[in-house]
TrEMBL record:
Its main location: membrane. Ca(2+) 2 binds at D198. Gene3D superfamilies: Collagenase (Catalytic Domain). GO terms for cellular component: extracellular matrix; plasma membrane; side of membrane. GO terms for molecular function: metalloendopeptidase activity; zinc ion binding. Residues 1-24 form the signal peptide. One of its GO terms (biological process) is extracellular matrix organization. This is Peptidase metallopeptidase domain-containing protein. It is a lipid-anchor; GPI-anchor. A motif (Cysteine switch) lies at residues 107-114. Ca(2+) 3 binds at D215, G216, D235, E238.
Length: 301
């Protein structure tokens, strides 16, 4: 059974945007642009606060029905920062402190973390009027979409930007799928390019037609769509590697994460989980954590 824990500051459940696409239209913010905001708090007005609001709105922490994102530190921003800090296991201050700036600036997956802040209560609402407490670190997309069968196919999109050869990609992607197969009843096989596959993988730059443009190097690394969509896109402008140095991002680690989204898993609050939203350059994180295993088994019992 998934570990239960109390969430006393905000009654919530991690859920994702009900509307297409399941990928944010904003990415991490460069840390240097936020340095003047250190220790900013409710009531302050400072250049750059709107950037923080844009980031939090893109990833689900700021009310979606607010379009005017000014430089005033308002109640919604304080509440959103508090939820962000708790989910990222930071000290909950409701301020833009150093640890929060570091987390906001980290390279990450483009899928939102949460959605639906209830402005009246400053809690997260799952969209049907009910309030929930966390029951696990793992999460699902709204409605818990899943594949209706356990034998799935995948291939590489023919219009993909040529960043890494198929000769390099094939074995690492196969290993990434196998990690999920090893702990579930799911099975995966590659089919030829041009054949309709359940999960479709490619590299793309900036605006690539799915409603969630990439933001260039050092930002959103990749994004993926839930069942029954199945698209999995890498940002072609990142510094990719199969054996990453300090400035490179590991292709296989990101693949295991994004495939989790393709199978229906959302982000996890557990920093040891594959489904945690951020990635560190120069490292590998390819093995599923217990929270990932609990999640996939709950989704495909």
């Amino acid at each position: 059974m998934a570990t239960k824990f109390s969430h006393q500051l905000f009654g919530a459940i991690l859920v994702f945007f009900l509307l297409h696409p399941f990928a944010a239209k904003s990415g991490p913010i460069k840390p240097e642009s936020l340095q003047n905001l250190k220790q900013s708090q409710k009531g302050d007005v400072a250049n750059g606060i709107n950037q923080v609001k844009q980031f939090l709105k893109a990833f689900g922490y700021y009310p979606r029905d607010i379009d005017l994102l000014d430089d005033r530190f308002d109640d919604d921003l304080e509440a959103g920062l508090g939820v962000f800090q708790e989910i990222y296991n930071l000290k909950v201050t409701g301020k833009i402190d150093s640890d929060t700036i570091k987390a906001i600036s980290a390279p990450r997956c483009g899928v939102p973390d949460v959605s639906g802040i209830d402005r009246a209560s400053n809690r997260h609402n799952h969209g049907h009027g009910g309030m929930f407490y966390f029951v696990a670190n793992y999460t699902f997309f709204p409605g818990s979409p899943r594949w209706s069968r356990l034998d799935l196919t995948y291939n590489f999109l023919s219009d993909s930007v040529p960043v890494v050869s198929l000769q390099v990609m094939r074995p690492l992607i196969a290993r990434a799928f196998q990690r999920w197969a090893n702990v579930s009843r799911l099975r995966f096989r590659e089919v030829a390019q041009g054949t309709r596959a359940d999960i479709r993988i490619g590299f793309y730059r900036r605006d690539h037609g799915d409603g969630a443009p990439f933001d260039g190097p050092g930002g959103v690394l990749a994004h993926a769509f839930s069942p029954q969509d199945g698209r999995f896109h890498y940002d072609a402008e990142e510094n990719w590697s199969t054996n990453p140095s300090w400035s490179q991002v590991d292709l296989e680690s990101v693949a295991v994460h994004e495939i989790g989204h393709n199978l229906g898993l959302g982000h996890s609050q557990d920093p040891n989980a594959i489904m945690f939203p951020t990635f560190q350059a120069g490292t590998t994180k390819r093995n599923l954590g217990q929270d990932d295993i609990n999640g996939i088994r709950a989704l495909y019992p």
